[in-house]
Amino acid sequence: MKVLLVDDEPLTTESLERYIDWKGLGILEVRTASNGLEALELLPRFNPDVIVSDVRMPRMNGIEFATAARERYPDIKIIFLSGYSDKEYLKSAIHLKALSYVEKPVKLEELTSAIRESVYQCQAENANRTLTRSVIRHRILVKLIKESLSYEELRQQFGDHVPPFFRNSVRSMAIQLSGTPETESKLKETRHTEIADRLDELAGEMNGAVPFCGYADNDMLFFLMDADDVSASDFKEIARNLLFALNRLYGDNMSFSIGLGNPSSAQTSLTTSCLSAVEAVRSQFYFGTGLVFSEPPPETRSDPSAIAAKLYPDFRQALRTDNELEAGCLVDRLTADMRKERDPEISRVKNGFFKLLMILHEFAVEKGLTGTDTQQEEKFIWQEVGEISTLESLRDYVTANVQAVFSQFKEHTAVNARIGIVMQYIKEHYSDKDLTTRSIADNTYLSQNYMCALFKKETGKTVNEYITEVRLEKAKEFLKDRHVKLYEIALSIGITDPNYFSSMFKKSTGLTPSQYRERM
């Protein structure tokens, strides 16, 4: 399998080449092109199976290039990347039968998922394998939602797998799966069919009707029912019950949100109905997971880029004048303004906060609080912001960075913002017996490997060594009180085994806790 990456931003193509596990996806060769014309010239020589292309590029845009590529290679798989809310481009992508339309900033898990699906389709077509029930439903939904096929066209391709009620009025529900990258990956790999089948059973128990349930994307499940069998109020009640059941069955590792679409009718296609459900469930970004959303975003709204741009000068001024309170208030104001507008293009909202973080980084570099590798920092921040799933978490992430930079600035420390957050977290939670590098990473919005490597680089010690250092300093303070027993001191610093505490203390100081206390 071969993939061609087409984007006029070298940062994007370089990042995708570097960070996606191509071999794990079954991709043996990856090449890049900076625009549509260059890519078109490369096609006959390279003959890729999959194209991943930006939409807006100079000389020849992604839609024009994909159109020409599709004419020459009808079976080639196309994935579009775009940071713009442009219905005409989306319509063109649908017309070209694009496999996916991934928002920028690119979330690596989402793009990896789309590429994995394209590889699977190529393999399936080449091997002419028999599709399972769940995969057939997935394909039906892809054709329905991304290619807008009619009931007759779907029946022609999939026969009796397409339920007859698709030609009637249909009520649609989009169920969004969320969680950590690790839990999402495990669930998506092993429980697709399990969840879909379980939802079928639950709906039958609640209503007696037979729904159509399947995945269109790896993190989006659709649940469709004949509108003649269920009223709008009953459908909403079914959604609440399904959400409760999903949380009960899988809530330890995943969270779920549901969006209800407008029912299809003579005037509204089933595709439009499903897309309205997707638009509704995107509200989870603004209001959090675990809810049922039935109201679409407001029709008229301001451009998120314009909303954010108005605050940048004031944010810079707050940084220059050491006004931490004002900087925090500006982050809160941007959050409130974005929530009010509820733009469905989440990437545009994230981009506003991303630029705020880059202003903060520029300030930190200017004050000597962090390194000068802005390009590397930009890559990292871009990826971190892309993985945040709610507006509240995004606000908290930006606020935490603001607080860390101000703390560093006041203390004149060379440790960068994220190390400061980690250190502060350890100082506040040293007494927690379950304190680990994983729990610290999860609570400071950092990946575990990156946090450990960065901490070692900046401080010269590992995270675990620092935890031990903080605990021992606290233990020395507690030892001043001769009425406190040694096992109580151990428990107070998060160590349940008194013998281990004594051993650790002696290894560090050369004395047992008792000897140390006697010499005080």
UniProtKB/TrEMBL annotation:
Protein's UniProt name: Response regulator
Compartments reported by the entry: Cytoplasm
Q: What is its main location?
A: cytoplasm
Source species: Cohnella cholangitidis
Q: Which InterPro entries match?
A: CheY-like_superfamily, Homeodomain-like_sf, HptR, HTH_AraC, HTH_AraC-typ_CS, Sig_transdc_resp-reg_receiver, Tscrpt_reg_AraC-type_HTH
Keywords tagged on the record: Cytoplasm, DNA-binding, Phosphoprotein, Transcription, Transcription regulation, Two-component regulatory system
Q: Does the keyword Phosphoprotein apply?
A: yes
Source taxon at top rank: Bacteria
Q: Where is the Response regulatory domain?
A: 2-119
Q: Where does the signal peptide begin and end?
A: none
Q: Which residues in this protein are found as 4-aspartylphosphate?
A: D54
Q: Name one Pfam family in it.
A: Response_reg
> Which GO cellular component does the record give, naming just one?
cytoplasm
Q: Which Gene3D superfamilies match?
A: 3.40.50.2300, Homeodomain-like
Q: Name one GO biological process term.
A: phosphorelay signal transduction system
Q: Which SMART domains match?
A: HTH_ARAC, REC
Q: Which residues form the HTH araC/xylS-type domain?
A: 420-519
Q: Does the keyword Cytoplasm belong to this entry?
A: yes
One GO molecular function term of this record is: sequence-specific DNA binding
